[in-house]
Specification:
The complex is a heterodimer of chains A (110) and B (114).
Chain A lengths: L8 E5 L4 E6 L8 E7 L6 E6 L2 E4 L4 E4 L5 E6 L8 E8 L12 E6 L1
Parallel strand pairs in A: 1-9
Antiparallel strand pairs in A: 2-7, 3-4, 3-8, 5-6, 6-7, 8-9
Chain B lengths: L4 E3 L2 E4 L5 E6 L6 E7 L5 E8 L14 E5 L5 E5 L8 E8 L8 E2 L3 E5 L1
Parallel strand pairs in B: 2-10
Antiparallel strand pairs in B: 1-3, 3-7, 4-5, 4-8, 6-7, 8-9, 8-10
Classes of the chains: A mainly beta (110), B mainly beta (114).
Chain lengths: 110, 114
Amino acid sequence: LAKTTQPISMDSYEGQEVNITCSHNNIATNDYITWYQQFPSQGPRFIIQGYKTKVTNEVASLFIPADRKSSTLSLPRVSLSDTAVYYCLVGAPGGFKTIFGAGTRLFVKA
Amino acid sequence: GAGVSQSPSNKVTEKGKDVELRCDPISGHTALYWYRQRLGQGLEFLIYFQGNSAPDKSGLPSDRFSAERTGESVSTLTIQRTQQEDSAVYLCASSLALSTDTQYFGPGTRLTVL
């Protein structure tokens, strides 16, 4: 299983772009990278998933370099409501033991 | 459509009692997952089901924990002889298929063992 490493916490201000990087040095060829968001007292919510290069949706962008040993979740112009814990997951098709890790606690200030 | 539901939302029990936590996944989702989250901590994977089968039970913390799934639908997580360290939020998720498919989480069951 590919282990992931993320910063424990980050602070930002409203309107700024936030980039959270996740390291996954032993990612396997058929592993995908998925990010989830969790608000207090709620279950995690899917944000974005990618395999390589760049993926963008209405919420975020995911940048994956060619070696795929890391990935960066980019949140454009954050607001107070983006304060949450963000988890990076790495996994492959066929069944795996999902490892969420401790995540990155993002705190957005006014 | 209906999301993942869990019941009860809160459960307070006395040490030594057995508890059953229920998860109703999204209809048609073949994969189902259970996680435990202690206060202020990340998610701890417990077990997953592919259909009604749980291929790997090694994530269960002890033999007091068991889980089953029937009809490729409802799943029950049972904790026998509860201990105070079992206090946590127990989250269930389902996905259309294993692995890369998005996991949809329920609201969780907050278990407090006195």
